[in-house]
Design brief:
By secondary structure, the chain is of the alpha+beta class. The chain has two helices and ten strands; from the N terminus they run H-E-E-E-E-E-E-E-E-E-E-H. Strands 1, 2, 3, 4, 5, 6, 7, 8, 9 and 10 form a ten-stranded antiparallel beta sheet that branches.
């Protein structure tokens, strides 16, 4: 019974860390290029971090995550510079970021349910420049990257439970 409880607890703990970093690339109608990364907690379906850079006619770095939203056939969140501008509506096809694995961003070449809804604003008084194309791809883990400490702790916990089980069995047979 105790072993089953420990196994369930370890599976639950492993699911608490579901942040996935995606590489972002895109192009806007005026030639502005989007690049960088965004991190999404694919368990809760929320964006947790962004480091996006705009180069071209519109320039800036966007690191502030806004409120999530969505509509029929798309899900989104806002992202902006610390000063407020530039800012962008960050949209992808689907109903949620839960379980998200990457794909095309909504724009003129990849519409969400027939709508073009992605855009970037350079200033408060500017008109949105539409995203022509963009993608999110899971960032590759570099070779030699050590396992997260939580995995080592889970392994240590498994070994401890196994050692206890062996000890308890030998003690009961003695």
């Amino acid at each position: 019974m105790k072993l089953r409880l420990m196994a369930v607890m370890m599976l639950f703990a492993a699911g608490l860390f579901a942040d996935t970093t995606f590489n972002v690339s895109g192009t806007f109608a005026d030639g502005t290029v989007l690049g960088g990364t965004v991190t999404i907690d694919t368990t809760s379906g929320t964006a947790t971090a962004a480091n996006l850079t705009l180069t071209g006619p519109i320039t800036g770095t966007m690191t502030v995550i806004g409120s999530p939203g969505g509509g029929t056939g798309y899900v989104d969140f806002g992202v902006s510079a610390a000063s407020g501008y530039p800012q962008m509506s960050f949209l992808v096809a689907g109903d949620s970021f839960k379980g998200y694995t990457g794909g095309a961003m909504c724009g003129t070449l990849a519409k969400c349910n027939g709508y073009v809804v992605g855009g970037v604003w350079a200033t408060a008084n500017s008109t949105a420049v539409q995203l022509t194309s963009g993608t999110l791809t899971p960032a590759a883990t570099p070779p030699g990257t050590p396992a997260p400490p939580s995995l080592w702790l889970a392994l240590l916990g498994c070994l401890t439970v196994l050692a206890y089980a062996v000890w308890a069995r030998r003690r009961s047979n003695a």
